[in-house]
Structures are given as structure tokens and as C-alpha cells.
Design goal:
The complex is a heterodimer of chains A (about 350) and B (about 600). Chain A contains twelve helices and four strands. In chain A, helix 3 crosses helix 5 and helix 5 runs antiparallel to helix 10. In chain A, strand 3 and strand 4 form a beta hairpin. Chain A is mostly helical. Chain A is about 60% helix and about 5% strand. A two-stranded antiparallel ribbon of chain A has the order 1-2. A two-stranded antiparallel ribbon of chain A has the order 3-4. Chain A has a single domain, classed as MetI-like (MetI-like fold). Helix content of chain B is about 25%, strand content about 15%. Chain B has two domains: about 270 residues, D-Maltodextrin-Binding Protein, domain 2, CATH 3.40.190.10; about 230 residues, Roll (Dipeptide-binding Protein, domain 3), CATH 3.10.105. In chain B, helix 7 runs parallel beside helix 8, helix 9 packs antiparallel against helix 11 and helix 10 runs antiparallel to helix 12. Classes of the chains: A mainly alpha (about 350), B alpha+beta (about 600). At the A-B interface, loops of A face helix 8, helix 10, helix 12, strand 18 and helix 13 of B.
């Protein structure tokens, strides 16, 4: 037996029918209900639009750069620096100016979106899969399995992840780690992000599963002879969808920021790959003479993180309208406050 | 390691130059030395160590030094960076030292006269001045035994002097030395010290007596500190120079005259006598504030009063100083070099024609512009750098006339010619090898690495560029032959003193290749060049050495042993009321014994 989101989400079950033209009550699907609530949140809608636009820009980066008449992101032209090697500022040919190598900042910001989104979305996706898997196992089986997994999560959570990231980044530089499985650059960054993120998902999922496994529909399924695996896959998992989606959406901007931080500290993606964090790091020493080099990638980073956070808030409100006081915390930092 | 070394430049460049960057010279472009000039970098009023007055300073006053970089060591037996040397040469007196405006002719300092080298090149005799006294609490006259102990402690594992092995290993019995007496050092009387060598390389040993290891250390005071691992003599020290770290009655400096990461205070040495020293020592006190952001520090210095920046200013502040405060900017050439080490032993670059193609294709002007442009760099055209004897004979600024060296902005046609000679008819590399390129993080090194990487890709190579911390680059990759790194685009060298052997021997002599801590990054091992170096090492006197080492430089260029791109010039900034004097021999770093307030 399966239940829909409407059955378990507060507010999703009662009072949701609307009279049809004949005066009868017709039920709306959970998705329709979600969309009805979500579209009222204009900030979330704008954020969604921005993120979609960003995705399009990232996917079509080469085409967009060409359409804008910009040089490629890796085209070096030291003639675009002054006699001291300081980069030249925004101009018609280079709307965002150039960097110390004479590379077009706008083209690099556009290409940098690829790194941020790949790291943010892929890293969060992998972390979510691992977190959900561990959380479901721990919460569903309980007992020593729960104890073991929960203590392991506690151990991982107690690791200073930025310092570990710096260590792994340095150790995996050049030759990679784990017999070459983790390659320097993007691979290392995603590995670190997954390592840092999955535990939070696992904890939340475990808590939810502890509650769900006692529900009547689970008992009913069990009494009908369903196996544990079937119960987890068919009864528990669908009911985790909403909170996990909300949480993952709020995790993405954190991971984008984490990638930027790692790149800023020199253990992120490998040059010449454009990354916003790397650009900000390179711009820091020359900020007083080349503000544009920090302002544009910094602005892109800010808007992207803000958009994901606002979207996450909107999703939370739409999927969880009763619990408006719920606060989600990622990496010890408050990231989403239901409004 | 064989004698004749220098220091790898760990963090070259305007923003982050390491204390390990070394000797300085005069700006050829800015100041018109060596027959070159540049309108781009010429500015009326920019200072140079060669033109600064050494004798008309105002007596007294306190100088404030702002430095975002801390000392590495303040023990003369351990110090090995330009920032260390600023304090060491104000507080200690080695046997010989350079006046600020010269790097090629050392003057007797603690010594009474020039070193006497025996005809067979195996004995050096030095007489020591009378009347030089240690600071309190020792306060007695310096004796030859103090110099002997100072050098002997360099072999003490607790001191681990970084260049003892390079320059003093030919002392008789040095191979077994661990801090105790070395048979090759004799002190026949209180003011004479004699060095007996087991091979005729007296010239390089005598040259090395300008290093702080030859500054006297009183054994009776220091021995108990040297027994600790690591030695604590730096924390409890005495001075022989005009200044001393502020200390208590027991000579304790730590927490009083030096707080690591925070500050240091140099005060007058009450036992210093001007009659025994040529240094004027104008200042009453030097307060060194450590830490802070380089960009902020630079602005404070330029707009403030009574200050100098103790380490390399940020690139933006050099630009600001040049444009708005030129008289507060000092530029010194001869501050070392940067080049691209390519693996001569294995991989594609074991083919000399591929090395020449890379040399020809590289836009060295772009590399230098990334480092701050002509104001602070010259295009490197060969391996002996400005202010090093033999530089002019080796070709000066223009360098040897070979086609792959003639166009610093890069010459695609010449590059393709050598690609074809290397066996690639299309002019592009078509081998299957992906080059492993390991450079250093942080601008401008990372910028140079990216330019070099792009050049390789333009030549058809597939590359894997990795940037790691400068120290990791040297210690884990470029300095470890077993790693088989193909290209190290950010290596650099600065000689310990102005002798051509100190520039060329360690980085290019095949006999110096070691399994770890290797400074011959390209594993250059040309038997003819090795033999020529062995011969040149034994020459006595500047002229024959210049000639021999300049010829070796030519052979290295003909072999394209590495891909040169930058001769460094060091910028320094000061407040408008400071008459700062930089040391040409120490990357232009300030010399507190000559600096004064206006």
C-alpha cells in the first residue's frame, strides 16, 4: 500500500478540495497543490527562473560566448594588461574587463557557472543518495545498526571538514588518491563535498524514518507480508521525497560556496578551468586596482547562492505549509527559515 | 651537495616573494645599467642601491618596519632568507660583507683584510680585527675561536645550517663534523683563523665567508643552547654588529626583543665601536611590526611617516609608488631568476630540439608582464643574471645570438623549425605523451604556469597542469627525480653571493642530482658541461672564473638546458621621510645599518 505526499505532508490532506462547477468536491493532485502554493511565492519563482537561466547559460556556454563576440575563456592576451601587468577594466569588447592573463572575465564567469552547478548539483545528488541510503537503513532497522551508523555519522560530523578538504586537496593534487580513483580537480572537490554533506541528510532521514516506520500504512504493508526492502522502497522512500527535496535544494548553495572556498584556498578545480572561487582568489591581491575581477564572479556567486536559498525556502513553504517555523541547518549554519 | 649553491626561489614575484629570494643588483632597465633602457619603466626619482647616499644620513630616530612576513630564523647559523638577513647583518659581523651598493666586491668586516689564499688553493688565512666586542652579557672581545665555533656549529644537527654542506664541506675533516672541532679550522692566535681544505676550491670557500655563518658565536655562551634540539641560541643570543635584539641581562631575546609572528625590536649594541666598523648605523632603534596584509602595509608605508616595508610590496602598491611616489620606491636588479625546468632525462624534453622549440615559442615578455612588467623584471636570455660576475661575458641582457633566443615575444616559425628537427614534420607534437606540469599556486607564479601551459598546448602537447604550494612543488615533485615531472614552470634561483658558480653549479651540474631535495630540477646531466664546471670550480680570481663560467653559461644555452624567462628586480618602498638604503647583494632588502630618517 502506498500513500501520497498529500497524506503525510501537513496541510496536504485536509481542506484541499475545491468545488467544481457542479458543486461537487474534486481532489487536486499533490503536485497541483504544491504548484498552487509555490507560484504564490514570487521570490521563489524569480529564483527558479534565475536558476533555469543559469542552467541554460552553463549548458550553452560556448554558444553564448560566441554569440556575445567574446574571446574564449582560456584565450590569453597579455596586451590587455598595462605595463605593470595590471588588467584592463570593462570595455565594449570586454564588458566585465579582463584578468591578469588578459582573459575575458565575462567569458570566464559564464564558464565558471558550469563548475559551480556541476559541483553543486552533482555533489549534492551523490551526497543525497548516500545520506538517504544510510539514514533509511539506520532508521528502519534501529538497534545496533542504528547505533553503529549513527556513531559513524557523529564521527564524520566531528571532522573539521574544511581542514580535511585542504588536506585531501593537497594530498590528491597531481597524482590523485585512492589508486587514481579520485582525480585532482573537480573529482577531488566533489569527493570532499560529498564527504561533508551526506551526514546531514542521513541524520534528517534517519529521524523521519524512525517516525514513518511506526505509521499505520507501514504496519499494514508489513501485515500483508511485504519484505523490509519493499517497505523501504515502496512505503518509506516516497514519503521522504518532500523533505529531502527541500533539504537538497538548500544544500546546493552551501556546496557551491564550499567549492568556491576550496578553489579560493587553492585546492579546487585545476587551472585553466574557470571557477568563481578561483577567480575571486586571484582577484583578492589586486582588488584595489582591478575591482571588476572580483566583483563579477563574486556577484555571480552571490546571486546563485541567493537564488538556491530562496528556492529552497519556497519549496519548503509549498511542501510543508503547516510547519512554518521549521528551520533547516546545514553544516551548523542556518540556511533556510520558513517564512 | 657539491659546493657552489644558492637558494631556490620558493615564492617568486611581487606579491609573495619569499625570504629565500636572494641577492640583488641594480635595475638595468630602470637605471640604464648594462646598456639597456626602457621608456615603460623609467621614472625620475626612482631610487637604486647604487645611487643612494651611504654617508649623509641623520643620526638618531626610530625606524618602523612593517612586514607581513616573519623571520624564519634569527640565529646567524640558521638564517637563510633576505628578511632574516636584514636583522642578521645589522646585529652580526661576518668575516666579510658587502657595502649596500655592491654585490661583487666584498669588504673585510670582522676580518682585518682580504683573505689570503695559498697558491695551491687549499688554504685560506684570515686575520680578525682587534677591538670588536660582543654585546652583553658576554661583552668580551671577539676572538678567532668564536669564528671557528660559529662555523663548526653549522655542522651541528641541532643547528643544521642550510649551506654548510654546499660551501664548507671541503674543510679537512668536515665530512665527519657534527658540531665539534673541525680539523681543517685552525686558530693559531686570538686574531687569526686558517682554513685547510681537502681540495683546491679556496675561492668559493672564501666567497662564502660573506655569509652569516662566519659571524662570531661565543662558544662559552652558546654551547648550552646548541645542545638543545633544535638549538635555542637564536632565543638567547649576543651581537657583534651595531644593533642587537633587545634582550634581558641573560641575553634572552625571545618574548623581549622578538615575539614570533608579532614584533621585533633592535636596539643599539652598547659594546659596538664605530672605529672598528665602516657602517654608519644612524638609527637609534628599529621596531619591526610583523603581520598584516601586504596591500594595507604598503599603503601605510607610502602615506605614513618613518616607515619602510620590510618585505616585498604588493604589485598594486609598486604601481602606486611608481606613479605617485617615485622617490619612495627603490628598485634593485639581480634579485635572482625564474625559468622553466624541463625534464632533460626522460620524456619528450630529453630531445634537445623540443626544448629549443619550447624556448622559441614561449612569450617571455608575457611571462614577465604577469610578474609586474619591465619595472621589476628583465627578459631572461641566459642563465647568469645581472650583477653576477660573468653576466656581460655571457651575453648581457640580450644574451647569446641563437634563433630560439632572439624573439622574447615568441617565434612560432622558429618553434616549428625545431619541432620538425625533433621529428614532428607538421610542426606540432604528435607523440602520445601527456605532459605532467607542476607549478606553484598564487599569482604571479600561477599566471606564469598557465602561460607556459598554453604555450605547450599550442605546440601540440597534451598537458595536465597542477598547481600546488611552492614548498610542495619543490619538496614533493620538482625536487624528486623519481616523480618524473615533465615541466616545472615556476622554479627560480638566487645565488648566495655574487659568484657565477653559485648560480650555475647546483641547478645544472649533473653530479648534483639527488633523490630528494634535488635542485637540479631538469635533471640536466651533460658530461661536457659537468666536466667544465669541475674545472671552473678550481679557478682562483674573478677574471678567470668569469670567463670560464660565462662559457659554461653559453653551453647551457646551446643545450637549452632549461627555458629561461625572468631576471628579477626587487622593489622596496619607504615613507617620504625615510632615507632607506637597500642592499644590492641581498635582493635590495633594506640595510638598517645604512638607513636613516630625513
Amino acid at each position: 500500500m502506498s500513500v501520497g505526499v498529500a497524506e503525510i505532508l501537513p496541510g496536504a490532506a485536509g481542506g484541499l478540495g475545491v468545488p467544481d462547477v457542479d458543486g461537487e468536491i474534486s481532489a487536486r493532485s499533490p503536485l497541483a497543490l504544491f504548484w498552487r502554493r509555490f507560484r504564490k511565492d514570487r521570490l521563489a519563482l524569480v529564483s527558479l527562473g534565475f536558476i533555469v537561466l543559469l542552467l541554460v547559460v552553463a549548458i550553452a556556454a560556448p554558444l553564448i560566448v560566441e554569440l556575445l563576440g567574446l574571446p574564449g575563456p582560456y584565450v590569453q592576451n597579455l596586451n590587455l594588461t598595462d605595463q605593470f601587468g595590471s588588467p584592463l577594466g570593462p570595455s565594449g569588447a570586454h564588458p566585465f574587463g579582463v584578468d591578469q592573463l588578459g582573459q575575458d572575465v565575462m567569458a570566464r564567469v559564464i564558464y565558471g557557472a558550469r563548475v559551480s552547478l556541476v559541483v553543486g548539483i552533482l555533489g549534492t545528488a551523490v551526497a543525497t543518495v548516500i545520506g538517504v541510503f544510510v539514514g533509511v537503513i539506520a532508521g528502519f532497522y534501529g538497534g545496533w545498526t542504528d547505533t553503529l551508523l549513527s556513531r559513524f555519522i557523529d564521527v564524520v560530523l566531528s571532522i573539521p571538514i574544511l581542514l580535511l578538504g585542504l588536506g585531501i586537496g593537497a594530498a590528491c593534487a597531481v597524482r590523485g588518491c585512492v589508486a587514481g580513483t579520485i582525480q585532482p580537480g573537480l573529482g577531488v572537490v566533489i569527493f570532499i563535498i560529498v564527504l561533508a554533506s551526506w551526514t546531514y541528510i542521513a541524520r534528517i532521514v534517519r529521524g523521519l524514518v524512525l517516525s514513518l516506520r511506526e505509521k499505520e500504512f507501514v504496519e499494514a504493508s508489513r501485515s500483508l507480508g511485504a519484505s523490509n526492502v519493499r517497505i523501504m522502497l515502496r512505503e518509506i522512500l516516497p514519503n521522504l521525497a518532500a523533505p529531502v527535496i527541500v533539504y537538497a535544494t538548500l544544500l546546493i548553495p552551501q556546496n557551491i560556496l564550499f567549492e568556491a572556498a576550496l578553489s579560493f584556498l587553492g585546492v579546487g578545480v585545476r587551472p585553466p578551468t574557470a571557477s568563481w572561487g578561483q577567480m575571486i582568489a586571484a582577484a583578492a591581491p589586486i582588488f584595489n586596482t582591478a575591482w571588476w575581477y572580483m566583483a563579477f564572479p563574486g556577484g555571480a556567486l552571490l546571486l546563485t547562492v541567493l537564488a538556491f536559498n530562496l528556492l529552497g525556502d519556497g519549496l519548503q513553504d509549498a511542501l510543508n505549509p503547516r510547519d512554518r517555523s521549521m528551520t533547516l541547518t546545514v553544516s551548523g549554519t542556518q540556511t533556510g527559515q520558513a517564512r | 651537495m657539491r659546493p657552489g649553491g644558492g637558494r631556490p626561489i620558493r615564492l617568486g614575484g611581487l606579491v609573495s616573494q619569499s625570504g629565500t629570494a636572494a641577492l640583488a643588483g641594480l635595475s638595468a632597465l630602470v637605471l640604464g645599467a648594462c646598456g639597456a633602457s626602457s621608456s615603460a619603466s623609467t621614472s625620475a626619482g626612482v631610487q637604486s642601491p647604487k645611487t643612494e647616499s651611504l654617508s649623509r644620513g641623520k643620526q638618531g630616530g626610530t625606524l618602523t618596519v612593517l612586514s607581513h612576513q616573519d623571520f624564519e630564523h634569527i640565529d646567524p647559523g640558521q638564517a637563510y632568507s633576505s628578511v632574516d638577513y636584514q636583522a642578521i647583518y645589522a646585529t652580526q659581523r661576518p668575516l666579510y660583507s658587502h657595502e649596500p651598493n655592491t654585490s661583487s666586491a666584498p669588504s673585510p668586516d670582522l676580518a682585518e683584510g682580504p683573505p689570503q689564499i695559498s697558491n695551491n688553493g687549499e688554504t685560506i688565512t684570515v686575520h680578525i680585527r682587534h677591538g670588536v666586542r660582543f654585546s652583553p652579557p658576554v661583552s668580551r672581545e671577539v676572538a678567532s675561536t668564536d669564528v671557528a665555533y660559529a662555523i663548526e656549529r653549522g655542522a651541528n644537527p641541532n643547528v643544521a645550517n642550510p649551506y654548510f654542506q654546499a660551501y664548507f664541506s671541503s674543510l679537512a675533516g668536515a665530512d665527519k663534523a657534527e658540531g665539534g672541532p673541525i680539523p681543517g679550522i685552525a686558530t693559531p692566535d686570538r686574531h687569526t683563523i686558517v682554513f685547510h681544505l681537502n681540495k683546491p676550491n679556496a675561492q668559493i670557500v672564501a666567497d662564502a665567508l660573506v655569509l652569516p655563518l662566519s659571524a662570531p658565536v661565543p662558544a662559552d655562551f652558546a654551547r648550552k643552547y646548541d645542545a638543545k634540539k633544535p638549538t635555542e641560541y637564536g632565543n638567547y643570543q649576543v651581537a657583534s654588529g651595531p644593533y642587537m635584539f633587545k634582550s634581558n641581562g641573560e641575553g634572552k631575546v625571545l618574548g623581549i626583543g622578538y615575539q614570533p609572528g608579532k614584533s621585533a625590536v633592535l636596539v643599539r649594541n652598547p659594546n659596538w665601536s664605530a672605529s672598528t666598523d665602516s657602517r654608519p648605523a644612524y638609527l637609534s632603534q628599529i621596531n619591526i611590526n610583523i603581520g598584516g596584509d601586504a596591500t594595507v602595509i604598503g599603503r601605510q608605508v607610502l602615506e605614513g611617516s618613518g616607515m619602510v616595508q620590510g618585505d616585498t610590496p604588493a604589485q598594486s602598491n609598486v604601481k602606486l609608488a611608481y606613479e605617485r611616489h617615485p622617490s619612495q620606491l627603490e628598485i634593485s636588479p639581480g634579485a635572482g631568476d625564474h625559468y622553466i625546468a624541463v625534464n632533460n632525462k626522460r620524456g619528450p624534453f630529453s630531445n634537445v630540439n623540443l626544448r629549443k622549440a619550447f624556448w622559441a615559442a614561449l612569450d617571455r615578455t608575457a611571462m614577465n608582464r604577469a610578474r609586474g612588467g619591465k619595472l621589476v623584471t628583465d627578459v631572461m636570455t641566459h642563465f647568469l643574471y645581472p650583477e653576477i660576475p660573468g653576466f656581460a661575458a655571457a651575453g648581457g641582457l640580450e644574451g647569446p645570438k641563437v634563433d630560439y633566443n632572439e624573439h622574447p615575444e615568441g617565434d612560432t616559425a622558429v618553434a616549428e623549425k625545431y619541432m620538425r628537427l625533433a621529428g614532428y614534420p607538421s610542426g606540432k607534437y604528435t607523440g602520445g605523451k601527456t605532459l605532467e606540469v607542476v607549478g606553484s599556486t598564487g599569482s604571479p607564479a600561477s599566471d606564469d604556469a598557465e602561460i607556459a601551459n598554453q604555450t605547450l598546448e599550442n605546440l601540440g602537447f597534451r598537458t595536465k597542469l597542477n598547481l600546488v604550494d611552492s614548498s610542495v612543488m619543490y619538496s614533493k615533485f620538482c625536487g624528486v627525480p623519481a616523480e618524473e615531472i615533465d615541466v616545472c614552470p615556476n622554479v627560480g634561483w638566487a645565488a648566495d653571493f655574487a659568484d657565477p658558480q653559485a648560480v650555475l653549479d647546483v641547478p645544472f651540474n649533473g653530479r648534483n642530482i639527488v633523490s630528494t631535495g634535488n635542485n637540479n630540477w631538469g635533471q640536466v646531466n651533460n658530461p661536457a658541461i659537468n666536466a667544465a664546471m669541475d674545472k671552473a670550480e678550481r679557478l682562483i680570481g674573478q677574471e678567470p672564473r668569469e670567463k670560464a663560467w660565462a662559457a659554461i653559461d653559453g653551453e647551457l644555452v646551446a643545450d637549452a638546458a632549461a627555458i629561461p624567462f625572468d631576471w628579477d628586480k626587487q622593489p622596496n618602498i619607504e615613507s617620504k621621510d625615510v632615507a632607506g638604503v637597500g642592499d644590492l647583494w641581498n635582493v635590495g632588502s633594506w640595510d638598517y645599518s645604512y638607513t636613516s630618517l630625513k
